[in-house]
Amino acid sequence: MIAVGIGPQRRTSRHLDGLSFEVGEADDLAVLSFNFLPSGFKPYFTSCKAVPTHDHTAPSHPIMLTRVQFEAACKELIATERPVEALNGWSWNEHPSLPNLGFLSRRVFHFRTTQSTSIDSMPTDGVDLEETLFEEDEAASAIAPESFVSCQYVVYSATFQVPAFYFTMHDPKGAPLALANLVRTSLFHPFVFEQTEATSFGLTRPASAFPLLSQGDHPALGTPCWYLHPCETAKCVDELMSELDLAGYAEEQRFVRWLEMWFMVLGSTVNVRS
Q1: If pLDDT is split at 50, 70 and 90, which confidence band does 151 have?
Q2: Of the ranges 1-10, 28-37, 127-136, 182-191, which is most confident?
Q3: What is the arithmetic mean of pLDDT over 100-114?
Q4: Which of 42, 64, 127, 156 has the most beta carbons within 10 angstroms of its beta carbon?
Q5: Can you give the C-alpha Rg of the chain in angstroms?
Q6: What is the full DSSP assignment across the chain?
Q7: How far apart are CA 223 and CA 92, in angstroms?
Q8: Kindly report the CA angle at 151 between 178 and 123, in degrees rounded to 5?
Q9: Strands 19-23 and 12-16: what pairing?
Q10: Please, how many CA atoms are within 13 Å of residue 262, restricted to the half-sphere of its CB?
Q11: How many degrees, rounded to 5, is the angle at CA 221 between CA 220 and CA 222?
Q12: Residue 107, Cβ neighbours under 10 Å: how many?
């Protein structure tokens, strides 16, 4: 997972697509997401392990989720009508044969962005994507946008005890998109690939121990997918949760709120609108 930083700032109340929280005073990083990036603002990305976490001697919110808590939060989230577009279209799926391996899924459409280069010029190992992916492709801008089908999943990571975002992307003929085409779709925010290198298996940052984007089998279905590595998700969500007033929330409601904050963190990297 990735956090967006804008440097030091004062505590400010924020309202985001029906989700309200405060961005606290941060000495080195303020965690943001989805929609309240000001016009013309170009954020930078950093590994979530740089996000400061509060010293909770007795935290009033969950730090991570168990599989049972994850399932309960997911079912409650989709059962309640919410004015947040990122939370629309999801459905709960039980594993066809094993208990407690359910997951959220939805099917959405994305488009090729106009900021791209020819497929042949997609960089390989050790090449900076920033210079390549953001060259203006005037020819592409004159062509009607091509739509792609994205199957998206929110699954439980038993290793990190947090949700993880898995997805596939296929062209109109049903062929999966290669990395060179995948990174040029509207699924990703345009600033995600700054200071990012392409490898044979995904996208990485030079100073990061884990890739930003990688390939792996769906934990429940066993089918090939792309996924965002969940290694530092708990720290990112904890930073947001610590700014919420959860007094009066039942335990189950805190789990749902945790999942909402997870979607906000996810939204700093990908376009999660339905």
Answers
A1: very high
A2: 182-191
A3: 92
A4: 156
A5: 19
A6: -EEEE--SB--EEEEETTEEEEE--BSS---B-TT-PPTT---EEEEGGGS-----SS-SS-SS--HHHHHHHHHHHHHS--S-GGGSS-EEE--SSSTT--EEEEEEEEEB-SB---GGG---TT-BHHHHHTSB-HHHHTSPPPEEEEEEEEEEETTTTEEEEEEEEE-TTSPBPPHHHHTTBTTB-TTTTTT-EE-SS-EE-TT-SS-SEEEEE-TTT--EEEEE--TTHHHHHHHHHTTS--TT--HHHHHHHHHHHHHHHHTTTB----
A7: 18
A8: 20
A9: antiparallel
A10: 28
A11: 100
A12: 12
Judge whether 254 and 61 are in contact, CB under 8 Å.
yes
Domain boundaries of the chain, sorted by first residue: 64-266
38-95 pLDDT per residue, tens? 333 333 233 444 333 344 444 567 888 999 999 999 999 999 877 777 788 999 999 9
